[in-house]
C-alpha cells in the first residue's frame, strides 16, 4: 500500500492486560530541560545546562503508552539537585564532624557514617597523590575552581560546597588525563564517593575515562556534573558502582561506560550490580567517534553529525571506532538503567554490547539521539519496559536507508532456552541489592515510541558466532569460557554442527557431545514485544520517503542468508529466528504507516503486508519452499502481533 493509504486493521482483539495496566501508575513524561543558559567555559557553579534552542516538547508531557505510563527521566543538568547543601567557605584544613556548613561523618545518621575524619581543601592548582590522602576521609572542596586531580584511597569522599552562587569545580585544563582515580600499584581502593562536584576539561584518551579509569568497585557519583572531558568518556562504572542524580554531558566519547573492573562477575568477567538512576545523559560523543555520514538523497557527503557549536577543539584527531554515544556496557551482569533522561547523544543513546546479562531499562526518557535509543547486541536476559522513546535515529537512519534503523534494536540477543540458559547475577551484592534478572524471556513492553526512524527490530546475523574472526570471545552458555562453548570448543566442533530442519534446533554432535549449532551462535530468541504504542508520522521526519529512506518506520524480525558452517542452507537461520526461537509480538498499538520486515534481509517481498505479518503460521511453510530457499522470497504468513491494532498502513 502507499504511504498515504489509511485504514484500521485489527489482528484479533486488543487486550491491554489488566494486571499490566494496574502496575503502571498514571503520570507524565517529559524531555524536561526547558530553555536554559548555554554551557560556560569556566563553570562558576555545578549548573551545566542544555543549549538555549532545546525545549520541552509538548507531546512529551502527555500521558502515553498502551497502558498509563509512570513519570520518566527528567532534566538534571543545571537544576537545583546539583547544588550542594553545604555552604562552608572558610578556613581550610582538618575539621570536626558537626562544624557548621560542613558534612557530618563518623557515626550512624551522619552524612558519611563510614568516614573517620574531614578536611577542607581550598581552590588551588594541585594534584593529590595517593600517599597524600588518608582512607575514609571526607574531602570538602570549597566553592571555586580546583585545578588538579586526586588519587583516592579506600572509602574517601570528595564533596563540593556551594556559596554565593558558586559551586566546586575540579578542572583538568585539558592537560590531565584523570580527575579522580586510584593508584593501581597500591591495590583496589573501593567505596569512594563523589558528590556535588563539577568535573570538567580532563583529557582521557579514547576508550578511557576521567573518573575511575582503574575500575574500582563500590564507587558512587552523586549530584555531580561530568562535562567537556575529551576525547574519551566521563566515568567507568565498575562493579557495585552507582551513578545517580548526575549530569553527564558533552563528553568526547561517552557519558560513561561499564567495562573495566577490578572485581569481575563470575560468569561474564565484567562489572556487576551497577545502578544508573535519575541522571541526565546528553550531548556526548562531541569528538564524533560515530564517523561521517553519506546520503545523496539528503545531500550528505562526509557529513559530520555533530553541530559546530558542540565540537570540542581539544578532541584532536580521532578515528571512529563505533564505540560512542550516551553510554555503553560490555560484559556486565546486572545493570539497572532507570528514570534517566538520555538525549541528543551522537551514536546510540544506550548500548549493551557483547555478553551483557540481566540488563533492565525502565522508566527512562530517551529522545533525539543520532542512532537508536536502546541497543542490545550479543547479550542476554534484558527487560525494556515503560520507556518514552522519541525522535531517535533520524540522523544515522538516512545514512543506511535500506536497513531497518530501529529505536529499539535487538541484535543476536535474548534469553536462551536451548542450552540451559543464562542465570541471574549470582554475585552476593546483586542479591543483596535486589537486582532483577530475566533468564526465561526477554521483554520489550509498555513502551511508547514516537516518530523514530524505526520501531522495534529483532536481527540475527547468520554469520556471527564464536571463532568467526570478528568477536574475540564466545557465548555465555553452559558456563561461558569454562564450558564446552569456548572459542577452542567452537573452533573444533562448529564445522561439524547440524540443524534439524523439522524441529529447527541444533543436533547433538562433536566432542564432548553438545548442540554446537545453537551454543556457538549468539541468537535472538525468546523476546516478547508486547503492549507497546508506536506512533509514526513520516511527515515529521526529514527524508522519510520511499525514494530517500525506504526502510523508514520499519519493525520486524529477520536474518540474512548465510550460516555458521558449510552445512547451513541459506535460509536456515532466517527461518529459525522468525519461526522457531520464541520471538513474539502481541497486543501492540501502531498509529501511522509503520512497516514490517520479516524472515530474510534479502526477502524480495519486504516490507510484508499486515495480513502477511499477522496471518496464521499454519497456513504457510515457514519459508522452507524451494522458491524461498533458492529465490529469497517469502510472504509468510508470520503469525505475529496477535491482539494488536494498526491504524494507517502502507
TrEMBL record:
Top-level taxon in the UniProt lineage:
Bacteria
A Pfam family hit: Beta_helix
Right handed beta helix domain: from which residue to which, for each copy?
Answer: 210-415
Q: Which of UniProt's keywords are assigned here?
A: Signal
| Signal peptide location | 1-25
Q: Region (Disordered): which ranges?
A: 30-50
Q: Output this protein's name.
A: Right-handed parallel beta-helix repeat-containing protein
Amino acid at each position: 500500500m502507499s504511504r498515504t493509504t489509511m485504514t484500521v486493521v485489527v489482528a484479533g482483539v486488543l487486550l491491554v492486560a489488566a494486571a499490566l495496566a494496574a502496575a503502571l501508575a498514571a503520570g507524565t513524561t517529559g524531555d524536561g530541560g526547558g530553555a536554559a543558559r548555554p554551557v560556560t567555559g569556566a563553570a562558576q557553579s555545578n549548573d551545566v545546562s542544555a543549549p538555549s534552542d532545546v525545549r520541552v516538547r509538548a507531546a512529551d508531557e502527555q500521558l502515553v503508552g498502551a497502558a498509563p505510563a509512570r513519570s520518566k527521566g527528567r532534566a538534571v543538568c543545571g537544576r537545583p539537585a546539583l547544588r550542594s547543601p553545604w555552604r562552608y567557605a572558610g578556613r581550610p584544613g582538618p575539621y570536626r564532624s558537626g562544624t557548621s556548613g560542613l558534612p557530618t561523618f563518623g557515626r550512624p545518621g551522619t552524612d558519611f557514617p563510614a568516614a573517620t575524619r574531614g578536611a577542607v581543601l581550598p581552590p588551588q592548582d594541585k594534584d593529590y597523590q595517593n600517599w597524600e590522602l588518608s582512607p575514609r576521609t571526607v574531602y570538602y572542596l570549597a566553592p571555586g575552581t580546583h585545578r588538579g586531580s586526586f588519587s583516592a584511597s579506600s572509602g574517601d569522599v570528595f564533596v563540593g560546597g556551594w556559596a554565593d552562587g558558586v559551586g566546586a569545580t575540579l578542572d583538568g585544563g585539558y592537560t590531565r588525563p584523570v580527575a579522580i582515580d586510584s593508584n593501581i600499584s597500591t591495590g583496589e581502593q573501593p567505596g569512594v564517593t563523589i558528590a556535588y562536584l563539577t568535573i570538567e576539561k580532563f583529557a582521557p584518551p579514547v576508550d578511557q575515562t576521567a573518573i575511575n579509569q582503574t575500575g574500582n568497585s563500590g564507587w558512587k557519583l552523586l549530584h555531580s556534573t561530568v562535562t567537556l572531558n575529551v576525547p574519551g568518556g566521563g566515568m567507568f562504572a565498575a562493579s557495585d558502582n552507582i551513578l545517580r542524580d548526575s549530569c553527564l554531558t558533552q563528553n568526547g566519547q561517552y557519558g560513561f561506560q561499564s567495562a573495566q573492573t577490578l572485581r569481575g562477575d563470575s560468569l561474564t568477567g565484567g562489572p556487576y550490580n551497577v545502578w544508573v538512576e535519575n541522571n541526565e545523559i546528553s550531548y556526548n560523543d562531541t569528538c564524533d567517534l560515530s564517523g561521517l555520514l553519506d546520503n545523496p538523497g539528503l545531500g550528505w557527503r562526509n557529513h559530520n553529525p555533530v553541530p559546530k557549536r558542540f565540537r570540542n577543539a581539544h578532541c584532536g584527531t580521532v578515528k571512529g571506532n563505533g564505540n560512542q554515544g550516551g553510554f555503553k556496557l560490555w560484559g556486565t551482569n546486572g545493570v539497572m538503567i532507570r528514570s534517566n533522561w538520555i538525549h541528543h547523544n551522537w551514536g546510540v543513546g544506550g548500548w549493551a554490547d557483547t555478553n551483557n546479562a540481566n540488563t533492565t531499562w525502565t522508566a527512562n526518557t530517551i529522545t533525539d539521539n543520532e542512532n537508536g535509543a536502546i541497543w542490545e547486541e550479543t547479550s542476554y536476559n534484558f527487560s525494556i519496559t515503560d520507556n518514552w522513546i522519541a525522535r531517535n535515529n533520524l540522523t544515522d537512519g538516512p545514512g543506511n536507508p535500506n536497513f531497518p534503523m530501529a529505536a529499539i534494536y535487538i541484535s543476536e540477543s535474548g534469553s536462551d532456552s536451548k542450552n540451559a540458559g543464562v542465570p541471574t547475577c549470582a554475585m552476593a551484592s546483586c542479591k543483596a541489592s535486589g537486582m532483577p534478572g530475566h533468564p526465561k524471556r526477554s521483554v520489550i513492553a509498555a513502551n511508547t515510541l514516537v516518530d523514530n526512524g524505526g520501531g522495534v527490530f529483532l536481527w540475527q546475523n547468520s554469520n556471527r558466532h564464536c571463532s568467526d574472526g570478528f568477536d574475540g570471545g564466545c557465548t555465555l552458555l553452559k558456563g561461558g569460557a569454562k564450558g564446552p562453548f569456548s572459542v577452542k570448543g567452537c573452533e573444533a566442533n562448529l564445522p561439524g554442527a547440524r540443524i534439524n530442519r523439522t524441529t529447527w534446533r541444533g543436533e547433538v554432535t562433536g566432542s564432548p557431545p553438545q548442540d554446537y549449532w545453537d551454543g556457538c551462535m549468539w541468537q535472538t530468541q525468546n523476546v516478547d514485544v508486547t503492549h507497546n504504542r508506536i506512533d509514526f508520522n513520516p511527515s515529521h521526519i526529514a527524508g522519510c520517503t520511499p525514494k530517500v529512506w525506504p526502510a523508514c518506520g520499519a519493525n520486524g524480525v529477520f536474518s540474512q542468508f548465510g550460516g555458521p558452517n558449510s552445512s547451513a542452507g541459506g535460509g536456515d537461520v532466517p527461518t529459525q529466528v522468525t519461526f522457531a526461537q520464541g520471538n513474539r509480538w502481541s497486543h501492540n498499538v501502531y498509529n501511522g504507516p509503520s512497516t514490517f520486515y520479516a524472515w530474510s534481509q534479502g526477502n524480495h517481498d519486504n516490507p510484508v503486508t499486515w495480513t502477511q505479518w499477522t496471518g496464521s503460521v499454519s497456513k504457510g511453510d515457514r519459508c522452507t519452499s524451494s522458491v524461498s530457499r533458492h529465490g529469497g522470497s517469502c510472504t509468510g504468513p508470520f503469525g505475529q502481533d496477535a491482539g494488536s491494532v494498526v491504524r494507517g498502513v502502507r
